[in-house]
C-alpha cells in the first residue's frame, strides 16, 4: 500500500546523516552491552532512522474503528500518525502533518470526522488522505497540482488477528514474515476465541523517565526481576498475604528468542496464573486445549511476558497490550490497552479490565515497580563513570536450544537470551543503511 510517488518538483534532495557503527557497543557472544546505547543522543537519532522507520510498528486494534470516519492518532517512532477508516471501509495511516507548513492537522486523540482540516491555513484532507480543499487556490501557480499534495501515507499497512501494524519502508517484508515464529506464541493470546479479540476501556497513557529499550527488553526476557521487584505485590495477591509458595516463586518455564528480535517468556507450572478469578472461572480450559494445544495453554497463555520487536509488548493472562513510544533517549510514553475475547460476557470483560488496571495499569501494583526500575536505571546513566559501564547480559548464555516442545530456540525462563536476541537485531539494523539512505530514494515516495 504505497502513496503516489512525488515528482522531482515536489521534493528536495536530503543531506545524508552521519552514521555510527555500533558494533563496538556489544559483545553479545559473551553477554556484554555498553550502557551508552541507552543515553547517547546521536545513537537515538540513528535508531529513529534505522530501527523505527524501516520496521513494522504497532498502531492500534481493529476494534477501535467501527464506522467510516473513525480515527485514532498515535506515533511511529517520534512521527505523529493518523489511523483512519475511510468511506471504502479501508484502514489507512498517514503522517499527521499538513503538506503546507507541516503543522499537526489532527490534535484529537480519537474520534470521527469527514475530513481533517489544518487550523493554520485551512488545507483540508479527506479520510483517504486526499487534499480536498485549498483556500485561495487561485493564487497558486498553474503547475500546482492539488492531487499531488495529499497526506504522506505509510508504505505498508497490514493486520495480524486484530492488531494493526504499519511501516514506512516500501521494501519491508510482509508483516507475517516480519513476525516470523513469534505468531505461534502470540496466538496464545490472540486466538483463544473463534470470534477474535477487542479492546475495552480506552487507551491509558503515561510518561516515564527512561529509555524505551529498557522496557522492551524486560518484556522480551526478564522474569528474573519478578520475585524481587514485585515481592510486595505478590504478597498482596497471595491468598494468605505471605506471598506465593516456593514452587510458584521458583517456577519452571521457558523463554523464546526469535532471530528477528522478538521474545516471549512464560512459566509452565499449572498454577502460574495470576488472572482474575472471574476470568479464570469463565474459561473452558478443555476447549482451549483442543483449540490451542496443551503446550500453549500450559505455557505462553500463562502469566508470561512478550515483546514484538521493536516496541510492542503484551501480557497474555492480563490482557495488557502496550507500545513504548520513544520521546528522546531518556524518556518514553507508555500507551496501554486491555484486550479481551469478543465472546466474553460483559461482566467478564469488565473483570479483565479492572484486573489489568490493578496490576499493570498506570497505577497498577506491578506497573509502579517496573517504572521505578527503568527510571532509576536511566537516572544513573549520565555520569562519566556510571554512563560508560559495561552491563552484564550473561544469564542463560549457551543454554538456548530447540527443546522439541516449543517452536524455535528457547532457554530457561530465568535468562537474558531474548534480550541478547533483541540487541542483536537492534545492532544489525543500526549498522544497515535503511531504504531511504539508498541513492535516489525518498521518504515520501
UniProtKB/TrEMBL annotation:
The keyword Membrane does not apply. It comes from Streptomyces capitiformicae. One of its GO terms (molecular function) is iron ion binding. Belongs to the bacterial ring-hydroxylating dioxygenase alpha subunit family. Residues 57-154 form the Rieske domain. Keywords: 2Fe-2S, Aromatic hydrocarbons catabolism, Dioxygenase, Iron, Iron-sulfur, Metal-binding, NAD, Oxidoreductase. Gene3D superfamilies: Naphthalene 1,2-dioxygenase Alpha Subunit, Chain A, domain 1 (3.90.380.10), Rieske [2Fe-2S] iron-sulphur domain (2.102.10.10). It holds the Pfam family Ring_hydroxyl_A. SUPFAM superfamilies: Bet v1-like (SSF55961), ISP domain (SSF50022). The keyword DNA damage does not apply. This is Large terminal subunit of phenylpropionate dioxygenase.
